[in-house]
Amino acid sequence: MATDSPLTYPCSLTLDVPFPDARLANVALQALRVDKELSALVQRELSAVDSTLKVQYKATTNRMLRVAVNSFFDSLALVLEVMEQLDVDAIEARKTQEKTG
Amino acid sequence: MDLNKKRRRIALGCEGSANKLGIGIILHEGTSLETSTSTVLSNIRHTFVSPPGTGFLPKDTARHHRSFFVRVALQALSAANITIPEIDCICYTKGPGMGAPLTSVAIAARTLSLLWNKPLVGVNHCVGHIEMGRAITGASHPVVLYVSGGNTQVIAYAEQRYRIFGEALDIAVGNCLDRFARTLEISNDPAPGYNIEQLAKQGGRVLLDLPYAVKGMDCSFSGILTRADELAAHMKNGGKGPDGEPFTPADLCFSLQETIFAMLVEITERAMAHVGSSQVLIVGGVGCNERLQEMMGAMAAERGGSVYATDERFCIDNGIMIAHAGLLAFETGFKTPIEESTCTQRFRTDEVLVKWRK
After folding, report:
1. Sign of the CA dihedral running B105, B110, B115, B119
2. What confidence tens digit (pLDDT) does each residue in A17-70 have?
3. Pair B190, B47: CB distance under 8 Å
4. Which of A91, B250, B267, B306 could form a disulfide with B203 if both were Cys (CB 3.0 to 4.6 A apart)?
5. Binding-site residue positions of B for substrate
């Protein structure tokens, strides 16, 4: 059998997600890069540069790209919500508010 | 720092392998394995219920878990009334279960671990059920029947492993019940199995003939489900039962329960004879079923033993069992590095080294 030609990934998307600081950008990076992409038709690269999370998606078709990026946004939204509501300072603020409120 | 010298150890556990999102916080006190006590500080759960006639799909279930994670976590923290510095580790369900739901909870657990600078502990869902059952009931050497929508296993502990003596060969007993509830379009609120149990109480006039599929130490449910679905279709078309009289959904539910529970009692008894135990511990969502507990109790009593079961707070999927089993592992030095904090749909119960027991 002839060798298969390597997959090309003509459809790509780059995202720069700003965070309040480098610590939070790194937390997002570490939380989100653990799970591998489900499909071999999609490739992803994540990195943190200062307070920005850089996301690079490549896929074989626009449909695969859209599905993968939408799923990434769902996970990113969860990470952001956890940061906003459950970070150490947020919990502290809630406690202080409960005491005085 | 030797963790076991620390008198109070606290873990937060996150569970989401099926349609229940659970977050619980547990306290272990005491310095030795033999005398340590466990206290539930909080155990909060929110269930994703799909409309009658449908089941829960991975994508929707994951979306539910993402939507409710922060809310449930805040409730758990508030009910436990502890501070973040007091928490020793974050535990999460590594598997087995449904892929997207598992991963959605793992992502949130990793985020907490990084924000709060606490180690992560990946937990086997089945081991969570077993350890919580042991802690709540105090059963010392039981054969464990773990029965839920996703799992059906007969387990006995030996030499630091929970060994599987028998299991369902195709679908779990709870899956059989859940899918039959869809056939009859029974409500999924609070759970399909619960509603089948209530409806079955109104049946009993006739025991319909369903295949009885015990195969040695194992059992099988897909053939029974097929036949039950056929009978349901027959009933809807005005068909009559074996005695020439019409039969009802209640009769179907009754017959299904009697058949599948008798099978579970048989394979449990076989394991008890094999292992020489007279105690049975039932864990998992199907373990809430009082008819199953009654039938198992009758068998255990004949053998001079007894049945141990927990209430719905602990037999239905929950976060506290993940916190408890995770903290037990953490106390032996077990941790999951964040790069390894993936989830897996298949995770055999006997893969876990139960270092916290002799």
Report:
1. positive
2. 999 999 999 999 999 999 999 999 999 999 999 999 999 999 999 999 999 999
3. yes
4. B250
5. 146-150, 178, 193, 197, 289
B1 pLDDT more than 70? no
Question: Within an 8 Å CB–CB cutoff, is residue B169 touching chain A?
Answer: no
* pLDDT at residue B4, as a whole number: 57
d(CA B199, CA A79): 42
Taking the C-alpha atoms of residue B152 and residue B298, their distance in angstroms, rounded to an integer, is: 20
- Nearest Cα neighbor of A71 from A29, A42, A40 is A42
Residue A84: closest C-alpha in chain B: B70
- pLDDT for the residue B80: 98
> Which of A27, A78, A94 is facing B115, going by the closest CB pair?
A27
Answer whether residue A5 shows pLDDT above 60: no
Q: What is the dihedral of CA B275, B318, B172, B170, to 10 degrees?
A: -90
Q: Examine the pLDDT at A2 and tell me if it is beyond 50.
A: no
Q: Which two tokens stand for residue B343?
A: 């989830």
- Contact: B66, A78; criterion CB under 8 Å: yes
Q: B177 pLDDT exceeds 50? A: yes
Which residue from B104, B338, B343 is facing A78, i.e. has the nearest CB?
B104
> What mean pLDDT comes out for the span A72-98?
95
The tokens of B160 are what? 């630091």
